[in-house]
Each structure stands twice: as structure tokens, then as C-alpha cells.
From TrEMBL:
Keywords: Cell membrane, Membrane, NAD, Oxidoreductase, Quinone, Translocase, Transmembrane, Transmembrane helix, Transport, Ubiquinone. It catalyses: a quinone + NADH + 5 H(+)(in) = a quinol + NAD(+) + 4 H(+)(out). Belongs to the complex I subunit 2 family. One of its GO terms (cellular component) is plasma membrane. GO terms for molecular function: NADH dehydrogenase (quinone) (non-electrogenic) activity; NADH dehydrogenase (ubiquinone) activity; quinone binding. GO terms for biological process: ATP synthesis coupled electron transport. The keyword NAD applies. The chain crosses the membrane at residues 14-31, 38-56, 76-97, 104-123, 158-181, 201-220, 240-261, 273-292, 299-320, 326-347, 368-388, 394-424, 445-464. This is NADH-quinone oxidoreductase subunit N. NDH-1 shuttles electrons from NADH, via FMN and iron-sulfur (Fe-S) centers, to quinones in the respiratory chain. The immediate electron acceptor for the enzyme in this species is believed to be ubiquinone. Couples the redox reaction to proton translocation (for every two electrons transferred, four hydrogen ions are translocated across the cytoplasmic membrane), and thus conserves the redox energy in a proton gradient. Residues 123-418 form the NADH:quinone oxidoreductase/Mrp antiporter transmembrane domain. Its EC number is 7.1.1.-. InterPro entries: NADH-Q_OxRdtase_suN/2, ND/Mrp_TM.
Length: 483
């Protein structure tokens, strides 16, 4: 009976792992091209996993001897991760079929990467954290180079692998220092050891914490650890870039939030300085480096760096309101980003995929519906009210102001204004430039559905914010049991 109760919180992850192994066997032994049926089964697996996460209920449960925790925060993060993986997989299959690069390994790799992310956000110990991180990272390295005949994709895969290995090394070194000076890798044990400190923490603890933050900053593509992001976003196949921009980013940011807030709650003053620096540099790089970009995927890479900076503003607050703001921002970001990449995946001319911002010229005349969707999404990403993107930034800046971080909020506002230029430049190109040849009609319903859902969320959040705001608040409170 004890074993059953210990495994129950891990049921969604065990289900995904088992289904992933079965899908590998189906792919190996099935004749013909099994990519589409395996992708369908993979999506069904992730939908079932979402239901299992919901069925576990709101109570905090631990498994595997305290290495794994299932609570409201983990459940909220897992729902976002699974939703991002489902949408990006649905977008990927028509693209891979058109490019004649279908292989059944694609949806299986996405499934195993998603499994690693689910483990990451439920980690309650640095050992389980590292296992989840590597389980998600290894499939991502392969996905980045999935077009093995493309030099750009191969370069993206190698860069991602090398810098990812460096990040893992930094993280492991930080964990070893924390273990050496505290005697434990458990989040609960670390929190208790830091609460009992009468004076300032040992230098080794602080250095270890800095290395841990640096290692995780690579994963969230926060500047100055962002150097892999533009090249990988541009070089990887577009559906892989769409996947990278949502699920792994959400998982890494939620993991960073849990690590900072739970084991290091007593050291908020020490880690806040590092997080504030990461947030400021990320917002500045995201705002200014994107101004000169002509490739839309590369522009979205710098945009993601900027958004990571805004989300870190919420983390710097170190409060329930700050974590609530992070979860609201991530939810809105998920729908905005998937819809934008649905538009990018629809940018095909004469059967060839195009990526230049100039290729959108005159889109309002050749495809008014797509131009409207892209304009709404760009306005939202720029943070223009009353669209959902405005509310995401509103909540993180309010959390910073409540925590007394006024300069950080001011930097956020200024960089938002600067970043608005390159978002509005896309709108200007679509509506005021002379039209070029129209795009091919989108193949399949997935891009249309993704664009429609994303647009509805962006337009409708202002009128129905309560479910997300209430759910995010409950999830954030799970990290502050005494608050």
C-alpha cells in the first residue's frame, strides 16, 4: 500500500514514459511511414496526461522518498507544458510532410522531452531536478538538428549541444558546492539549513547558488547566457523552433521559480540581486538586439529573450504576487507564441518556406485574415492594451512595485517601448508596404486552429481574466505554504 501511495503522484509521468516506449516499438515494427499515426497517439498520450495531472487533485503529495512533489504549482506548469507540446506537435506534422522529412522519431522525441520537463517542474531535490533536466535536454539537441541534411540545422544542433553541456556543467558544479556546504541536496533540507543560519551564509553557498542560477539561466535563454538562442531558433526547423519557444522555456522558468522560492527562501536578498541583473540585461538585449533583424525567426529569438527578462521581473519580487504574475505571463505567452509560429509556418511561396520580414509585405491585401491575426499578436507582444500581452506585463511590473523594485519596473517599461518598435514594424510592413506575391494556402487545419485560438485568447482575456488569475494565485500559493 505504501508503494502505491508513493507512486501515485508520479502517475502522469509513468504513463507518458510507458506510452513513449510503446510508440518507439510501434514505429520500429510498423511498415510504411508511421509518423502521422504515432504523432496522433503521442498527442492522445499528452491529452490523457493532462487529465491525470488534473485528477491528482490540489493537495501536495510527494513520491520516491521525497524526490518528487505534486502540488498546484507543478500541476499548473505541467498543463502549460503539455498544451505547448500538443499544439507544436500538431503544427509540425503537416510541415514535415511537405518538406519530406517525416520520421516517426519526431513525435517520440517531443514526448520524451515533455516527460523530462514534467519531472523538472515536480523536482523536490537537486538529483531529480538534474535527471529531469537532462531527460528533456537530450531529445531537444536531436530535434534542433532534425533536418540532418541541412547545414543550418546541423550547426544549430551542435551549438545547442555544446552550450547546453556547458550549462549542465555549471549547474552540477553549483549543486556540488551546495551539497558540500549544506550536506543535503533536498529542497526541504536546504530550506531548513538556511533558516537555521544565525549570520550570513557561507561563501561556498552563495557561489554555489550563483552557479545554479547561471546554469538555469542558459535553459531559460536569459542574457548574458542567451548566445545559443538566435542561432538555434534560426537554424532549427520551424516547428522545432515553435516547440523550443514554448514548452522548454515554460518548464525552465517554472523550475527556476521553484528552486529560488522553495529551498532558498531564506536567501532571497542574496539571489534577488542576481535575478535583477539577469532581468535587466535580458530586457535590454531583447529590446535593442532585435531592432536590426530581418529574419522573423531570429527576431522571435530576441523577443523570447526579452520576454524571459519580463518574467524574471516577477521572480525578483520573490512573493506570491510575483509567482502568480509569472504563471499568468507564461500562459498568455504560450498562446501568443504558438499563434505567431502558426503564421510563420504558413509563410510559403511557390512551395518554398520563406522567413524574411520583408516577405510579409502587403499581406493585408493578399491575405487579410492572416494579416489581422499577426497584427493582433504583434500588438499583444508589444504590450498594448487592452490585449492580453498588456496584462502579462502589468502583473509582473505590479509585483516588482509591491516589492519596492521601482528601478526594475522602470527599466521594464522603457524596454517595452523600445521593443514595440520592431513589433509595430511588422504591422507596418503588412499594411503599408507594396504587396509581394501571395502565400500558398495553409495545408491542414492545425495552423488555422492555432491562429484562431491564440487570437481569441489575446482578445478575450481582458473580458474573462478570472479563471486564469484565480488559478495562477492558487498555484503560486503552493510555493508559500506559510504565506
Amino acid at each position: 500500500m505504501t508503494v502505491t501511495l508513493d507512486i501515485l503522484p508520479v502517475l502522469p509521468e509513468l504513463f507518458v514514459a510507458l506510452c513513449g516506449l510503446i510508440l518507439v516499438l510501434i514505429g520500429v515494427f510498423r511498415s510504411g511511414d508511421p509518423t502521422r499515426p504515432i504523432a496522433t497517439l503521442s498527442i492522445m498520450t499528452m491529452v490523457t496526461a493532462m487529465l491525470l495531472v488534473w485528477a491528482l487533485g490540489p493537495d501536495r503529495q510527494t513520491g520516491f522518498g521525497g524526490l518528487f512533489v505534486a502540488d498546484r504549482f507543478a500541476a499548473f506548469a505541467k498543463q502549460l507544458i503539455l498544451l505547448g507540446s500538443i499544439l507544436s506537435t500538431a503544427l509540425a506534422i503537416p510541415f514535415l510532410e511537405r518538406e519530406k522529412t517525416t520520421r516517426f522519431e519526431y513525435p517520440v522525441l517531443v514526448l520524451f522531452a515533455t516527460l523530462g520537463m514534467m519531472v523538472m517542474v515536480s523536482a523536490n531535490d537537486f538529483m531529480s531536478l538534474y535527471m529531469g533536466l537532462e531527460l528533456s535536454s537530450l531529445p531537444l539537441y536531436v530535434l534542433a538538428a532534425f533536418h540532418r541534411d541541412s547545414p543550418r540545422a546541423a550547426e544549430a544542433g551542435v551549438k545547442y549541444f555544446v552550450l547546453g553541456a556547458l550549462a549542465s556543467g555549471l549547474l552540477l558544479y553549483g549543486i556540488s558546492l551546495l551539497y558540500g556546504f549544506s550536506g543535503t541536496t533536498s529542497f526541504l533540507g536546504l530550506a531548513r539549513s538556511f533558516e537555521d543560519l544565525s549570520g550570513p551564509p557561507a561563501v561556498g553557498i552563495v557561489v554555489g547558488l550563483v552557479f545554479v542560477v547561471a546554469g538555469l539561466a542558459f535553459k531559460v535563454s536569459a542574457a548574458p547566457f542567451h548566445m545559443w538562442t538566435p542561432d538555434v531558433y534560426e537554424g532549427a526547423p520551424t516547428p522545432v523552433t515553435a516547440f523550443f519557444s514554448v514548452a522548454p522555456k515554460i518548464a525552465a522558468l517554472c523550475l527556476l521559480t521553484r528552486v529560488m522560492v522553495e529551498p532558498f527562501a531564506a536567501m532571497t536578498d542574496q539571489w534577488r540581486q542576481v535575478v535583477v541583473a539577469l532581468a535587466v540585461i535580458s530586457m535590454l538585449v531583447g529590446a535593442f538586439a532585435a531592432l536590426t533583424q530581418s529574419n522573423i525567426k531570429r527576431l522571435m529569438a530576441y523577443s523570447s529573450i526579452g520576454h524571459a527578462g519580463y518574467i524574471l521581473v516577477g521572480l525578483a519580487a520573490g512573493s506570491v504576487l510575483g509567482v502568480q504574475a509569472i504563471l499568468i505571463y507564461l500562459t498568455i505567452y504560450l498562446f501568443m507564441n504558438i499563434a505567431v509560429f502558426a503564421v510563420i509556418l504558413s509563410m510559403r511561396r511557390m512551395g518554398r518556406h520563406v522567413e524574411g520580414i520583408a516577405d510579409l509585405a502587403g499581406l493585408s491585401k493578399t491575405n487579410p485574415a492572416m494579416a489581422f491575426v499577426m497584427a493582433v499578436l504583434m500588438f499583444s507582444m508589444a504590450g498594448i492594451p487592452p490585449l492580453a500581452g498588456f496584462w502579462g506585463k502589468f502583473y509582473v511590473f505590479m509585483a516588482a512595485i509591491e516589492a519596492g523594485l521601482y528601478p526594475l519596473a522602470v527599466v521594464g517599461l522603457v524596454t517595452s517601448v523600445v521593443a514595440a518598435y520592431y513589433y509595430l514594424r511588422i504591422v507596418k510592413v503588412m499594411y503599408f508596404d507594396e504587396p509581394v506575391e501571395s502565400f500558398d494556402h495553409p495545408i491542414g487545419s492545425a495552423p488555422v486552429v492555432a491562429m484562431s485560438v491564440g487570437t481569441m485568447v489575446v482578445l478575450g482575456f481582458t473580458f474573462l481574466p478570472a479563471p486564469l488569475v484565480t488559478g495562477a494565485k492558487a498555484a503560486a500559493a503552493a510555493l508559500f505554504p506559510t504565506g
